[in-house]
UniProtKB/TrEMBL annotation, chain A:
The complex is composed of two ATP-binding proteins (LsrA), two transmembrane proteins (LsrC and LsrD) and a solute-binding protein (LsrB). The chain crosses the membrane at residues 29-50, 70-92, 104-124, 131-153, 173-196, 228-249, 306-326. This is Autoinducer 2 import system permease protein LsrD. Coiled coil: none annotated.
UniProtKB/TrEMBL annotation, chain B:
InterPro entries: ABC_transp_permease. Its main location: membrane. It is a multi-pass membrane protein. This is ABC transporter permease. PANTHER family: ABC TRANSPORTER PERMEASE PROTEIN YPHD-RELATED-RELATED, RIBOSE IMPORT PERMEASE PROTEIN RBSC. Pfam families: BPD_transp_2.
Length: 335, 326
């Protein structure tokens, strides 16, 4: 850790590099190349990879996680984090199951799922923006709380018997091999891309992540923006809960266990700085595709799930460590 | 004396006594010395891990990999014991601590040399270490009949009325207290968390201090790996899964500030005991163990909120205008 990091003057180039030159050196291009390489490797290693239906199945590996990752990316860019997202899925799914026991139909189930997500986001946002708690600890706390409530309700039981019409979100296909979930993913990707890169709100998120004091002085309502981001993250967890519950057709309190890690990995792999202030939705989309293909490829090669998580963990550290190692080797000292 | 009464440790100790009294008033016998000793023994592992975690959090870092470290070292010594029952237990304990130190050093090096945020490092190593447990064990369980009698007997052996497990916890409490109060490293840990820039000016290497905190946390997790596996006489991939949250909760309840620089050995011990009493009171009160996760979560949130308020009122305002700006 170097001295007075925040006060070091920033190097501002006289002329911004051209679009092409910038794009060629970008993280996104690197990800795209890695993605293509994995795609080619997968199709060589397994004869089952290059089939439209298999590829369609593979998309379920990342669609639900990516929906949340878009919102978490914005939170991380703004300098906060939410580790409770997977627990929100568990709680939303559990409450949907409870509603089902009381005879709720599909529209009510979806409403319960989304509302639970929003409510959990509101709790997280209140803890961080009103009480001023560090988001890491606050959301570690709510993570135990939300999943804990799930365990209280369900114990070692499970809810199932969701209505056939509810299966649409996780099991339905819009056209040929294109699932509704993939459609939702694509729509959300575009929506979040526009929100982050094309609106005032998106710019404010970057400003807050770079310097929230300066943001406050420039008239950005920092706490309100952060609150909206927590609500958005909660809502997206609700959407993911609807999709996942619909796809699995059942609810257990251990649903989506450990997803918070995979989602943070996806965001960081997508080139979002964990320290806040930079990143793009395109990067997160590409990271989602890469991670989806890696897990699917390993699955085809009969690698057990827990071993895959070793790859995910190594990926998370490697993606951050390798550029720093290269810089370390180049300058010969700690950055 | 009056400052002592206002201190967090005193408040927490009172809360703990009140909690025990409350359980005792409903269920006679809970506060009997024998039962309290059993609760202490049951909380030993949590206490040891919380002390390691406290050192890490005081340097403004966090170590989420302790439970996975515990599982990996525990599985390793169980495998060695099952394969070679002749290896003395002392050697196995040394192996567990040594392996734990290495795993902690790996975390520490990534934080120190590559300056990667600790939460990212330890979230990553948490899955890696846990995955390696599965790989080395092939997903199999090591059961008590595969372990040597000496291996499983040690933590239970009673010396002067207390099991060895409790004595080890007391020894660790003493050592960490000495470390924090009397050694340069302990003072450096406090200084780094209190004000990293000022620490640099006084000649302390922030990165190295953090590295050492991770190493100690890892070593203690390794020790707990042996203690856990031998006490429950079983090792499997999911040993102590999610236990890192209890450890962080114990610290936060004990008044260790997540912003670094604040924390005491007494606080961490009381925080761990507080959770231990709740955990042991639940079955006595006939409440389903499924409540425990939610209670830990609620306890973390309440404790952090209280800490944040306490720190805000105590805040050192050096430059008023700057303080308002931030």
């Amino acid at each position: 850790m170097s001295l007075a990091e925040g006060t070091r003057p920033r190097h501002i180039p006289d002329r911004l590099s051209g679009r092409m030159g910038h794009a060629l050196r970008s993280w996104e291009l690197l990800l795209l190349l890695v993605g293509v390489a994995i795609f080619v490797a997968n199709s060589l290693l397994s004869p089952y990879f290059l089939s439209p239906w298999n590829l369609s199945d593979a998309t379920f590996n990342f669609t639900e996680k990516a929906m949340i990752a878009f919102a978490v990316a914005m939170l991380i860019i703004a300098g906060e984090i939410d580790l409770s997202v997977a627990a929100i899925i568990a709680l939303a799914s559990t409450l949907m199951g409870l509603a089902l026991q009381h005879g709720a139909g599909t529209p009510v189930l979806v409403g319960v799922g989304l509302l639970t997500g929003l409510l959990c986001g509101l709790v997280n946002g209140t803890l961080v923006t009103r009480l001023g708690l560090p988001s890491i600890v606050a959301t570690i706390g709510t993570m135990s709380l939300y999943r804990g409530i799930s365990y209280i309700v369900l114990g070692d039981e499970a809810f199932n018997g969701y209505p056939a019409s509810f299966a649409l979100f996780g099991q339905g296909y819009a056209w040929w091999v294109i699932s509704w979930e993939l459609v939702i993913f694509a729509v959300l990707a575009v929506a979040f891309g526009v929100l982050l890169h094309r609106t005032n709100f998106g710019r404010q998120v970057y400003v807050i992540g770079n310097n929230d004091t300066a943001a406050a002085f420039s008239g950005v309502r920092v706490q309100r923006v952060k609150m909206i981001l927590f609500l958005l993250t909660g809502l997206m967890s609700g959407v993911a809960a609807v999709c996942l519950t619909s796809r699995l057709g059942s609810t257990r309190p251990s649903i989506a266990q450990g997803w918070e890690l995979e989602i943070v990995t996806m965001v960081v792999l997508g080139g979002v700085s964990i320290l806040g202030g930079s990143g793009s939705i395109l990067g997160v989309v590409l990271a989602a595709l890469v991670m989806g293909m890696v897990t699917f490829g390993l699955g085809l090669l009969n690698v057990p799930g827990i071993v895959m998580s070793v790859f995910i963990g190594a990926l998370l550290i490697g993606v951050i460590a390798i550029p720093r190692l290269i810089r370390l080797a180049r300058t010969g000292r700690a950055a | 004396m009056s400052t002592f009464l206002k201190s967090r440790e005193a408040m927490l100790a009172l809360a703990l006594v009140a909690l025990v009294a409350l359980v005792e008033s409903r269920f006679r016998g809970f506060a009997a010395p024998g039962n309290l000793a059993a609760v202490f023994n049951d909380t030993s592992v949590l206490m040891i891990l919380a002390l390691g975690q406290m050192l890490v959090i005081m340097t403004k870092c966090i170590d989420l990999s302790v439970a996975a470290n515990l599982a990996l070292t525990g599985m390793t010594v169980a495998l060695v014991n099952a394969a070679a029952p002749g290896v003395p237990v002392v050697a196995l304990i040394a192996l567990a601590v040594g392996l734990g130190l290495l795993l902690g050093a790996f975390n520490g090096l990534l934080v120190w040399l590559l300056d990667i945020p600790p939460i990212v490092v330890t979230l990553g190593t948490l899955t890696i270490y846990r995955g390696v447990v599965f790989v080395i064990s092939g997903g199999e369980w090591i059961n008590s009949f595969e372990m040597s009698p000496a291996f499983t007997a040690l933590p239970r052996m009673v010396i002067l009325g207390l099991p060895v497990l409790s004595w080890i916890a007391l020894l660790v409490v003493l050592l960490v207290a000495v470390l924090v109060r009397l050694t340069p490293l302990g003072r450096a840990i406090l200084a780094v968390g209190g004000n990293a820039h000022a620490a640099v000016y006084t000649g302390i290497s922030v990165g190295f201090t953090r590295f050492m905190a991770f190493v100690i946390s890892g070593g203690l997790a390794g020790l707990c790996g042996y203690l856990w596996v031998s006490r429950y006489a079983v090792a499997y991939t999911d040993v102590a899964v999610g236990f890192e949250l209890d450890v962080v909760a114990a610290c936060v309840i004990g008044g260790v500030s997540i912003a670094g620089g604040i924390g005491t050995v007494g606080g961490a011990v009381l925080g761990a005991l507080f959770l231990g009493v709740i955990k042991n009171a639940l079955p006595v009160a006939g409440i389903s163990p499924f409540w425990q996760l939610a209670i830990s979560g609620a306890a973390i949130i309440v404790a952090v909120a209280l800490n944040a308020r306490a720190e805000r009122t105590k805040g050192r305002i050096i430059l008023k205008s700057a303080e308002h700006a931030a």
